[in-house]
Amino acid sequence: MSRYYLNYLDELESEAIFILREVWAQFQNPVILFSGGKDSIVVTHLAKKAFYPSRIPFPLMHVDTGHNFPETIRFRDDLINELEAQLIVGSVQESIDQGRVAEERGKNATRNALQITTLLDAIEMHKVDCAIGGGRRDEEKARAKERFFSHRDDFGQWDPKNQRPELWNLLNGKHFEGEHFRAFPISNWTEMDVWNYILRENIKIPSLYFAHEREVVWRSNSWIPVSEHLKLEDGEKVLTKKIRFRTLGDITITGGIESEADTLEKIVTEVAAMKQTERGNRSDDKRSETAMEDRKRQGYF
Amino acid sequence: MKIDNNQLLRFTTAGSVDDGKSTLIGRLLYDSKAIFEDQLAAVETTSKKKGHAGVDLALFTDGLRDEREQGITIDVAYRYFTTPKRKFIIADTPGHIQYTRNMVTGASTANAALILIDARNGVIEQTKRHAFIASLLQIPHLIVCINKMDLVDYSEQVYNDIIIQFEEFSSKLYTKDIQFLPISALDGDNVVNRSTRMDWYQGAPLLHTLEHMHISSDINKIDARFPVQTVIRPQRDEFIDYRGYAGRVASGIFRPGDAITVLPSGFTSKIKSIDTLEGTLEEAFAPMSAAITLEDDIDVSRGDMIVKTNNKPTPTQEFDAMLCWLHNDAARPRAKYTILHTSNEQKAMIKEVLYKIDINTYSREEENKELGMNDIARIKVRTTRPLMIDEYRDNRITGSFILIDDATHETVAAGMIL
Questions:
Q1: CATH architecture of A8-194+289-298
Q2: Would an 8 Å CB–CB cutoff place A282 in contact with chain B?
Q3: C-alpha to C-alpha distance for B312 and B263, rounded to whole angstroms
Q4: Which of A222, A268, B100, B315 could form a disulfide with B386 if both were Cys (CB 3.0 to 4.6 A apart)?
Q5: Which residues, in sequence order, are CB contacts of A97 under 8 Å at separation 6+?
Q6: One CATH from 2.40.30.10, 1.20.58.100, 3.40.1360.10, 3.40.50.720 for B225-308
Q7: What is the pLDDT of residue A1?
Q8: CATH top-level class for B314-417?
Q9: Share of chain B above pLDDT 90, in %
Q10: Rounded-to-integer distance, Cα A49 and Cα A70, Å
């Protein structure tokens, strides 16, 4: 066989770098939406490659719900230092204090939906015309129809029925003032691809992804970490378990799985044998069959 | 799982609401174990709610709320699965007539197209339409799946008759590699596993065919083309004089020392280095992303193309193209549009519509020349500045373009240069 072909990870990497460079060339004020999760870490790593030997030429934007894992914030700050990058933080707590949004009530209240307002406010305030995200099409059925360059109207809304067709590698980022784009360089990656890439590139990720001892309670079919934001319900017992997280969101809604995987190699092996999707432990997606689509329409990540 | 040298294969599926396309994709995902337990549980619940017996595999590919309600696919959806041999990306496109634009979109990057034929109906208008689009977009490999063989008693005669019907019109197409497969997506015959009910069929099942298809030659490795996306000029002391031309190799192979020409300026130089974060490369080939540095300090910017001096594309301002109109607003005769060709953006005008093509009969229509949604036509284009073009049949990257309406910023047409 000819040696002039790329293996699939190299091809995915090359595609992502191409998209990041198109963002830089076509927009005035792009940012990377950085959550501290593995997907946005991979996007950041790809941006480092895309512009080497320059530094990443745009800031990282973090929407801080105030319900973070402390490990995530430490990781974020270390990475920003290492990259000599600029960090923009949009605070959900500030949005609440300013009366822009109200806390959800009830048993399963989270700040997940509140992020939409904070995110859109931050985008407007910093005149961001393209927010680069780590969304993948394999994550959820509404995301399967997402474009690399995804248009948002001046209310930040997504119209899945009126998307621009994307042909070959021609990306149309033209927009009017006030509108913005979301760009998804790792659209074509699966969870397995991301993990294989992290392993291959030896990318640093938060310790939360590795198996560790933690105080947890069993709720909605997963181990929810004990934190200052968690209110114990009747009958719930705090246990110490060896767990790890497959995705990282708010500490209040991200469930862990019992695991012994404490190295990248072990994680890759474990993920390959997984029988549940990674978002299966995210209670934000379980609210209805179209929960993700509904949030995306309003301007969610 | 050993993954080191696995290639990526992109394929598109086209079919109508009833010929079992969604079921086939569901079957591929299910039998190749790309479905997770919670996805399966969700589909089982929905299947029960809708009163289906067993699991309706088609539901795995149901996407948006509107689609679930109407029971049809509206937009291109992408699906993924991996086998020990390859990673696959499926562009699942709707088959009904009003969605030609989605089929064209899904086909533009595909290595292979799957066309489904209902064995009971044989070749219908839509089959011809799908085959035409696959040919127009120059998808290198075509796999014709004759589905629902269970409903025609797994008859070899029916299968052979459909092949003859297909070959009658497919001789007019450009596609060279066409394979036929008798399958039953519902029961899984010849999808992932070989059918035990069609001993007369000697070929491989669909998945095996996809895993072993030769795709390394799908990309042009002869004509070296490097469209410049952006210039990397680091604001760091140690790289003060660095100028890296960043882009993705569209075709061909570049090596340090190669004599190159920058188009459209015509300046010549030599490649000094090909850089990545990991270090310099001895060669870069399509579709690699890299940064190229040159021996001489010449003016290069986005929209320029670096090519080998002994093999240059034709800079031209006027050319013929096949155009697919993608927008509800009809084309305005002689109006100006923005044309995007590789990283090069110029103004362009549709000088003349030569003829439209009826994609059901492959016949030319020379009377009505208005271009509306889903129309395909041969046109003459004129641009304000030269584009560095190749013919689409030689090069899918430097032979393609889109038109953008300046009033709405919408992508309104996709073109293939003749």
A1: 3-Layer(aba) Sandwich (3.40)
A2: no
A3: 9
A4: B315
A5: none
A6: 2.40.30.10
A7: 40
A8: mainly beta
A9: 64
A10: 28
